[in-house]
Amino acid sequence: MRVSEAAQTHRLEQQFAFLNEADRLKSVLRATTLVDGSRVENSGEHSWHLALYALVLADQARPGVQIDRVIRMLLLHDLVEIDVGDVPIHSANGAAHGSAETQAAESKAADRIFGLLPNDLRDDLRALWEEFEAAETPDAVFAKSLDRVQPVMANLMSGGGTWTTYNVTAEQLDSRVGVKVARGAPALWAWVRGKTQAYFG
């Protein structure tokens, strides 16, 4: 069945409404700095870097993980921060990270942002976002592992970064971050943990 020109135009308008809204993610600042420590990164940069992490560290995934799906999840995972902002896991407000209140706010943001898309894309991309959030499938577990390990590497490379700001201890890093990284990428966490232990002494 041929799609009418009007329908095609409407679809493109919806697609670009979403893409233009997604540009706002570049204005959401995170606590984590760039590797060189020169400034904080934004959530758009974080999402891009994580997609690259998945591509380069694919050999760290458990058998059966589909890296193309992991990359798609990571490109989408923080879009809700356009409305909700970033809640640093080690900050004074870190308890809000993953709280029921934050989850409700993020779900509402997902309704709005993914709702800009045509229905088929809305449902497909929203489902990937929800899969990432639930962290139950092998793809999502690996994606979550990378989401936790990237800030660790940034902090290591920048001489402590937000760990210094928030007085993070090795024990806090293990309990808040290490457990989740090890769940999806155990060999990766073993290597990274060696680096963090050297930092914390």
Give your account of this protein's structure.
- The protein is mostly helical.
- The chain has one domain: Hypothetical protein af1432, CATH 1.10.3210.10.
- The chain has 10 helices and 2 strands.
- The protein has a two-stranded antiparallel ribbon with strand order 1-2.
- The protein is globular, with a radius of gyration of 18 Å.
- 35% of the residues are buried.
* Backbone CA Rg: 18 Å
Number-wise, the strands total 2
- The CATH class is Mainly Alpha
> Per CATH, which architecture?
Orthogonal Bundle
Low-confidence stretches: none
Q: Please summarize the sheet with the most strands.
A: 2 strands, antiparallel
Compact description:
The chain is mainly alpha-helical and 201 residues long.
Q: How are the SSEs ordered, and which strands pair?
A:
Blueprint: H1 5-22, E1 29-33, E2 40-42, H2 43-56, H3 67-76, H4 81-84, H5 100-114, H6 119-134, H7 138-157, H8 161-165, H9 170-184, H10 186-200
Antiparallel strand pairs: 1-2
GO molecular function, one term: 5'-deoxynucleotidase activity
Protein name: HD domain-containing protein
Keywords: Hydrolase, Metal-binding
